[in-house]
UniProtKB/TrEMBL annotation:
Protein name (Swiss-Prot/TrEMBL): Mariner Mos1 transposase
Residue ranges crossing the lipid bilayer per the database entry: none
GO molecular function, one term: double-stranded DNA binding
Coiled-coil segments: none
GO terms (BP aspect): DNA double-strand break processing; DNA integration; double-strand break repair via nonhomologous end joining; mitotic DNA integrity checkpoint signaling; replication fork processing
Mos1 transposase HTH domain ranges (all copies): 1-50
Species this chain originates from: Acromyrmex echinatior (Panamanian leafcutter ant)
Amino acid sequence: KQHLREVLLHYFILKKSAAETHRLLVDIYGEHAPPKTSCKEWFRRFNSGDFDVRDKEREGVPKKFEDAELQALLEEDSCLSLDRLTKELNVDRSTVGKHAMEMVQKEGNWVPYKLKERDMERRLVICEMLRQ
């Protein structure tokens, strides 16, 4: 994250526009490039004389929750949508998404992205049964 901000600052110093910089970053980093709006925001900051690319402290205390809270909700009802989880936990949608990254929603249910050992064994048994 900070590396990309340093790259933005580099192109700002080279007198490139935010839009041109964004195009260059998309060519280089593809889907990992920062959004155009972020590029514009950083260029506004640089224009105002703020060249610090580190994260700034934000006002207010962000709501924190434990993965256990999310896990408990999903165990109770694995069909909950991301929006519903956001409301239940009273946190930002992206926060829930980051915590649920090891989970994926398949056929309306949240399941682990990485299979547990027993699930892999179960798949193997089923595959062997189907081959017969």
